[in-house]
């Protein structure tokens, strides 16, 4: 498929270039463009031959003095750094952030004051569990880390696409990571929580209950990095110029809405295109479909800290939007792909401790643990604290300090005084007062005895998990159950499976526990509360007793359901496959392209072989993809144009029929015109009798299959199809379970 910048974004991209100037100018200094240049060694000596090593005679041994060969191979031998221990697999983009209006009342952070300022950002999206080469579409939390290059220094918002976490205290992170990573003896499975050690751990950690449901939900298999939310997870603190502090939760909301894959599709994509999400991000930006996210904040006054029936410092809880509404305060646009994956995406180093004046921490024990870990882990990756001097990590504002020697020091500090206080250097660099922009920590009163003890206010592990379950639509619940069948179905230990059902799921919802149990060989538990306590294993008895207290203040929160908040007003950047062969109806394909591309969708011609197809009218078009390199899983919708010869060929192609079946099974919109309808009838979806020839141009409600013979108004047919694509998926196809694919 040819990637072109779209005109409608031309204006956008030229203004954003101006705004990104600061970071760009800085990166420019380091960019190397070798077009038209001679190759040199690292010492700048021009090289005459990289095809033959220097040998004693043409059949003799290689000579030690071959500095060209030695330099080249030594570089290759060292071309990697340790991958991140978690979030190893990721991809990133540059862009900018702009606040809608001054937030001075809440925070003095300069980048949140002026709506005219565009702050450069670099965002890295990631999976958590898999290695650097693992597949993108695995079931996992996605990292959503943003580095804001502000004029007061770098601010990192290192979040996830799920608003809660598995554990409450940083000290448990070690056990969580060990349990969720591949098994220690055989390093299996890759990039998946579906194994005994993870579920053993989870079954013994009721605090993970809420997070488990989010991870079993479709949130953990996003359709695109551009279509998922982001969350700071912890409660942070805003501080304004008057020194007033307030609690704040950060959210990112994608303007394209939140959309997911289905599990079968995610698994197949992992094989057919393991780079699916990475490619989607890259291509969208190349085409000018810049991912956009609004920043939202939930603000809680300090005096209200204890007014909730959960603790603001507990990262396993959200603040339901019913209690504290979300205010959208600015927008981030990602408009440039990196130039070099290693230099930028691999070397970017995030740290929740990178804050600017106006943003501060809270005592959330998970956040506190993170504040130690990130710097430490970067030192392991870079073998040096000087990673902050790498271009992608450099702030755009001046940096002056005495941090000196160490591996790969870049800055050449001048002068003799490398200590403070000094008189030999005129007392410089000097301290900044708060008024001069010095970072001064929020003066929180802290008082307590030294103790290893979880606060009692962290004890309720099930109310919000139950709230999440109650907030799901039927189809979302079904997907969670199916995910549980998969995840726990891969757990060998019956004891572990039993404990998850009885001690975790049954305390969230009896419906969840009994339906999950049925798919994994566990006797469904009885529903009443007394037996819940009796059924609980010894290990968890007291926790379970606590858990059976009735639900707390918010029983349901519509905001956590993807379906209830579905955005279906745009098809921008959706991918549509056209199945065709020689003799297809050119007019219909042109009409489709015209209507859909004008709305920002991408249309791809898929056929048996790459090359050209001739239409029934005689025009030729290029085939973009052949079946062998693609599949319905890579598209959001399918169209089959008319044309007797084309459809007669397609009917004999198993891959074409499979394409239709699979798209149907994954609940995607399908459209066919004239003879194209015959392909639907020939596929397994004909049995479900929803694509019988239709004389009207109306979409079959809730089914998303649009088939018309003899349509007179092709354009309006395409408009109807476009509306169906905007719906994303048609979950109400009960018949899909009958369709083999
Ligand atoms: Fe991280 N996490 N984390 N984490 N995390 C890392 O830092 C850690 C947590 C998150 O694209 C590591 O540079 C601890 C929550 C993202 O480069 C490491 C704890 C959230 C990324 C680390 C947590 C995150 C990381 C590994 C519990 C959501 C990828 C490599 C106390 C709010 C950033 C690295 C990127 C990466 C530690 C929990 C998000 C080891 C100790 C909660 C998005 O330092």
Overview of the molecule:
By secondary structure, the protein is an alpha/beta fold. It folds into 4 domains: 28 residues; 338 residues, Catalase HpII,  Chain A, domain 1 (Beta Barrel), CATH 2.40.180; 105 residues, Catalase, four-helical domain (Hemocyanin, N-terminal domain); 168 residues, Class I glutamine amidotransferase (GATase) domain (Rossmann fold, 3-Layer(aba) Sandwich), CATH 3.40.50. Helix content is 29%, strand content 14%. The chain has 21 helices and 18 strands. The strands form 3 sheets. Strands 1, 2, 3, 4, 5, 6, 7, 8, 9 and 10 form a 10-stranded antiparallel β-sheet that branches. It has a 6-stranded parallel β-sheet with strand order 15-12-11-16-17-18, sandwiched between helices. A hairpin with a 5-residue loop joins strand 6 and strand 7. The longest helix has 18 residues. It is globular, with a radius of gyration of 29 Å. The two termini are 26 Å apart. The chain binds CIS-heme D hydroxychlorin gamma-spirolactone 17R, 18S. CIS-heme D hydroxychlorin gamma-spirolactone 17R, 18S binds next to strand 2, strand 3, strand 4 and helix 10.
